[in-house]
Amino acid sequence: QDYYGKELQKSEDLKTNACITSARPVSKLVRDALERIHEEVVARYYGCGLVIPECLTSCRILDLGSGSGRDCYLLSQLVGEQGHVTGIDMTESQVRHGSGAPPHPSSSPLTSFPSSCQVEVAKKHIAYHTDKFGYRKPNVEFFHGYMEKLGDAGLADESYDVVISNCVINLAPDKRAVLQEAFRVLKPGGEMYFSDVYASQRLSETVRKHRVLWGECLAGALYWRDLYSIAEEVGFSPPCLVTASPITIGDKELEGIVGHCHFVSATYRLFKVPAGSWTGPGQVTYNGGIVGHERELVFDANFTFKEGEVMNVDAEMAAILQSSRFAEKFLIRAGGANAAAPQGCC
Q1: How far apart are CA 278 and CA 274, in angstroms?
Q2: Which of 71, 97, 159, 196 could form a disulfide with 101 if both were Cys (CB 3.0 to 4.6 A apart)?
Q3: What are the chain's domains?
Q4: Quick one: pLDDT band at residue 335, thresholds 50, 70, 90?
């Protein structure tokens, strides 16, 4: 809390690129949406990837570790006024601001922004963004809380279509509890789409207890193979790797501490596939129609679906497409390929 709420005031204060690595090319739709977000919210953003899945119109989305609210305000535009975005973050407000508090003028220079915690920054700009997006009422809300205990914030079972997270699960000591809670609040067929930091091996106690490495998102990095084990134990489908990029450490002292371990910023997607969903391989045809992905949908590192083309998929992917919000975008028939091997990010 202290590192993110007090010591870091802007992205340039970070000692590695772990928390600022962009995971995928940004579409014009997303670029335009980013332009409409208040500059203080953007300046206080420390995420490690742009966590923007596809097909979000009217969805209910939960952002774990929402920070200054940048991703929430971006998603607010993509879900539309009929959708809803909830952000939850552990950094506590020192001064409480209501959602109707006046925002900073857009002309304020970044250097003039006072030191304030992440949740406070997010909340005080709700009215600004509601007006900017032309909405009659806000479609975002922010809570102080812990992603391991979403029930304490009043988040009910099966209440969200998508759960996202942007470089914060590594900060949670109990990562299984985080995935368990995400699974609980997701509707059947819902998705957890998240960027985070992963390690090529299990970390030593020296690394895991290093204060700066914790704040830089490295000390809590999960060994990538353990993600697969935890996801299965919780009940998710096998993780689908979307993108992965290496992390560089620009500090000699920190390099010496981590030794031969390699880190990557990776984006995965997990699905809550209901029991009794599609049970065998399939042949699928993408019908197009997803805004920003009309001709081609890059689903993950293994599957890119082109409009009108028949593609063989394994049983897991067939079940994901058939049970999720993507179902109406695909024609799915029996037949296809055997299961693909898990694809590691490190």
Answers
A1: 9
A2: 97
A3: 28-94+115-272 (3.40.50.150), 282-334 (3.40.5.100)
A4: confident
